[in-house]
Amino acid sequence: MPRAEREQQMLDAAVQTFGQRGYRAASMDEIAELAGVSKPLVYLYLNSKEDLFTACIRREAAALVAAVRGAVEPEGAAGPGMPADRQLWAGLTAFFAHTAEHPDGWAVLHQQARTHGEPFAAEVAEMRAELAAFVTGLIGEAARAAHQDPAFGDRDVSGLAQALVGAAESLAQWANETPGVSAHEAAATLMNFAWTGLAGLMDGHRWSPTR
Hints:
This is TetR/AcrR family transcriptional regulator. By secondary structure, the chain is mostly helical.
């Protein structure tokens, strides 16, 4: 078997083991057995448990970002020239579909990597920053198209993107733990919660505690 294919086989086994057992409880023996290889071969290819876990994080993060980008960018489902809300809808649907189809990978990213300190948390933070930057572009595009509220600036756009990504992460966890919730339903929930309010904000309707 080619090295690259064998390595992916090991990563598949590692993601499943880390996602279901947790980083601390997972053993290299379990991973090697699930992959159908010897433990020395896992060490030969991926050096250590820490390096193996890092490789899992990077692979799963790249796959998630690629799924979202692929749905939104011209060659994806949204298509060229689509309004920002349709692009966001396509991206969110892809996000929730990917996390539902790869629950072990999502557990690695959302639960395991974040709870075991550096450098694992930094790897996930990098993925989150990329997603937030992507969403910032979509919201910024919508804001420029609306241009109803002159007070609506770059800081508003950046903050809203961070809030939206955080909400998507929490909602994905809930959707994966709640039987029967589809990617379409999860995306619609977040669009109703976030985009409807965002549309009013761009029209100049701002909530104030003094009102």
